[in-house]
Design a protein that fits this description.
Blueprint (H helix, E strand, L loop, with lengths): L16 E5 L5 E5 L5 E4 L3 H11 L3 H14 L4 H12 L1
Antiparallel strand pairs: 1-2, 2-3
Helix pairs in contact: 2-3
Bound molecules: zinc ion (ZN).
The site of zinc ion (ZN) has 8 residues, from loops.
Amino acid sequence: MNGIELKPCPFCGSDDVFCSQGPEGEDYVECWDCSAKVESYNGLGDAVSGWNARAIDRDDLLKVADECERADVDGVIDWAARNRKAVG
Ligand SMILES: [Zn+2]
C-alpha cells in the first residue's frame, strides 16, 4: 500500500487496516474489523507512526490472550478467543 507499512490492529489483531483522509483533511489509519482509528492533522506519516506505535507484536498479543484465559476474568475469554482467531 504505497510503501506504507501498517501493523496489525492493536485491538483485534486484524490485518485489515487501511489509511485514508477525512473531511477536514485529517489523515487517519483505521481497522475494518473493529473501527479502531488513529488520526493526525500533521500528515499521513504521523498517523501511520501513531498507529504503528500503538500496535503490539503478534507474540505479545498471544501472550496477553493466554494470560487472560488463565486468569479466567469475566468478559475477557471471548476477547481472547477473538484475538487468537484474528492472529491465527
Ligand atoms: Zn481492529
